[in-house]
Structures are given as structure tokens and as C-alpha cells.
Amino acid sequence: MKYLLIIGDGMADYPLPELENRTPLEVAPTPNLDRLASESGRLGMVRTIPRGTMAASDTAFLSIMGLDPRQNHPGRGPLEAINLGLRLTDEEVAFRLNLVTQDEKKMVDSSAGHISDGEAGRLMAVLQEHFQGRRMRFVPGKSYRNLLIMERPPFDWRKLVTTPPHDILGRPLTPYLPKGPGGEFLIGMMEEAARIFAEHPINRTRIDLGENPANLVWPWGQGGPAQLPAFQPRYGLTGFTVSAVDIVKGIGLAVGLEAVSVPGATGYLDTNYAGKVEAAIEGLKRHDFGVLHVEAPDEASHSGQWRLKVKAITDFDQRVVGPAVSALRTEFPESRVMVMADHITSLRTRTHTPDPIPFLISGTGVVGRGAATFSEKTAGAGRRYLREGWRLMEFFLRPEIT
Ligand SMILES: [Zn+2]
Questions:
Q1: Contacts (Cβ under 8 Å, ≥6 apart) of 236
Q2: Cα–ligand 1 centroid distance for 115 (angstroms)
Q3: Distance from the CA of 195 to the center of ligand 1, in angstroms?
Q4: Which of 12, 236, 337, 394 would be a feasible disulfide site paired with 357, CB 3.0-4.6 Å?
Q5: 72 CA distance to ligand 1 centroid (A)?
Q6: Cross-referenced CDD domains, in alphabetical order (predicted)?
Q7: Which tens digits make up the pLDDT trace of 188-202?
Q8: Residue 311 near residue 301 (C-beta atoms within 8 A)
Q9: What's the pTM value of the predicted model, to 2 decimals?
Q10: CA 343–ligand 1 middle distance (angstroms)
Q11: How far is the CA of 345 from the centre of ligand 1 (A)?
Q12: Distance from residue 245's CA to the centre of ligand 1 (Å)
């Protein structure tokens, strides 16, 4: 049996007045999802963000991978370090380091206009050179998602409070700067970096072109080396991830899932959807379990533009779910698919929220319950609600879902 999990990141949302009290998932035309729901689907709701944890993709994806995030959270930095092929030593701490755009001390853009890999890489190299000999490594990742690795930091990083920059869009920076042990150290580093970036030709060009400059670095999600229980011994399946996002690949690698790279996978609306679908189907020839992760709905939600989110969900249905399910059924007669969000990303607040999200399971051994569509409402109307999100994987892999 082959199992494919398709994740539309941040796809779930709340009803919006401007959409006549419907959600973007209800408004977007999603014939493929609706067909799965009505023909053979089992719908339900799941809480992937346990109370008291941060509503973020890493928390959600740990739950989805069958791990309780309250007991298994190595931090965003260390997980992305794994994805970049870096092994942290016990003396090292990794921070996720965003390139961001600030204006008048407000967080304008947590992605610095989706800065290109090339520009981001050059800015990170400039920092590496500037901070030489201060036990800090600036490691380029993808676009605005980079890493700061500190060796034996001169403060207790476990007590340091940092904030994800996408949670404070449009807000003043000052209250959210690193606080507690190491706070001043990091703020000093941020100020030095900002002075260097202000003069940098890359930013002058970006401003000239009307693009958001990378005029600040923002450290968060710090942690030591990640150690997570492996997927294969728990579920008896080997697997892989297809994703443009380091955190998904990183958690996957940390639990032993192969990270399949796809050329042109950007994590945005211009991503190579067909290439990702093809990579997932190919992956299932080597493994029995695969994750196909699409970031675009989340990015669209953070922009606050409902039309963009509806477009991202429409593409997700038409260019990912449709072709993936049809190829899955053709290639593997014994197969099952689960489609879900990972968490809600609210268009209204432009942030992640911890409320339960809908999922849909269809395929071999699944007895459908015939909902007309796939949405927050139809999934909520079903009886199936998993309060402990890390039990969902077990449910998905059950021999029979009746
Ligand atoms: Zn997410």
C-alpha cells in the first residue's frame, strides 16, 4: 500500500465578511477535493497545535509526523540546519535568521520581498566576513530563510525569548526584539548588520526597482542539535518529503524521511507544481509513504490578500491534488491519500492560529461518508475530531477506515 499526504500550508481559515461569511477554501473552486470528499472521502478535524505551543509550521508538522510537539521540539533553527546538511555539535546553537524589511521600526515584510537566493547568499557572506572571529556563522539557506549558528554562546539561550517575524507584520519591532539572556548581544548584532545592509548595493538596487530591501536580520527559533524519534520504526514505512520549505524537509530528515529536491520549487505561487507532483509519484516507487507539501496558500495568507489565497487554493486543487490523485491511482492500485492544511493562517490577522483544521482521507480501505465538498464546515460536521494531532498519522495508516 502506498500513502501520500498532501499538505496545503496555512490553507484553512475563518469565514470572512468580504467573502459573505465563507472561508477561502469554500470560495475557491476545488472540484478535485470536492470529488474526493463526495465519492470516497472521510473528513475530520484535527488539532495540530496543542494548547500552550506556538502556532507554527514546525509545531504542526511535528504533530502530523506523529510526534507530540510539547515533548519533541528542537526549535526552528536546528531543524533547518539538518535540512542544510549541517550537523550541530553539542556546543552549537542554531537560530533561524530571516532577512526582513523594516520601515520606521515596523516589521513591513518578514521575507524581504522574497529576496532571491543569490542576493541573500551575498548578504550572508558580507555578514560572515564582518563578524569573523566572533564565533558566529552566517549560513545561507533559501531566499530570506537563513541561519545563524553560534558556538558556545555567552548566554543561556534556553531562556532567551525570540519572536517569529511573520507574527508581527505591520507592528512596531521594539517590543518583539530578543529579550532575556543574550537579548542585548543579539540586538547589537542586528544593529551592526542593519548598518552594513543600509549601504549595500543589493539593497540600493532593490529600492530602485521598487522591491523591499533586506535592511534587517531577525534571529529566532534557537535551539541545540535536534534528536527526534524516527518514522520507520514507529510505522514500519520508509518515506520522503517533497517541499520547498526547509522546515518540512528538516523535520522529515530528522525523522528519517528522504528530502527530495525539485528544480523550480520556490515555496510561492510560481512554484513548479508539476515537478513536485511528478517527484512525489516517483518517490512512491522507492518508498511507501510520501509527503507533498505546498507552501503557497500560507504565503498568500500572510499577504492578507484574499484573492491571492483563493488563487493559491485553486492552484493547489487543480495543479497538485488533481494530477497527484489521478497519477497515484494509475500507478498504484493499492493507495491512499490524505489532504490537509497544517494549521490555519488567518487572512484577517495575517498570522497562524492554533484552532483545529480539516483533513480528508480517501483510497484503499477507506469507507467514504459522502460530504458534498471539502471545507472547514463539512469537515467540522463529521464526527471525527482528533484533539491530539499526533494520533492522526496512526489513523491515516490504519488498515481499514470504516
Ligand atoms: Zn505552515
A1: none
A2: 20
A3: 32
A4: 12
A5: 17
A6: iPGM_like
A7: 999 999 999 999 999
A8: no
A9: 0.81
A10: 6
A11: 8
A12: 10
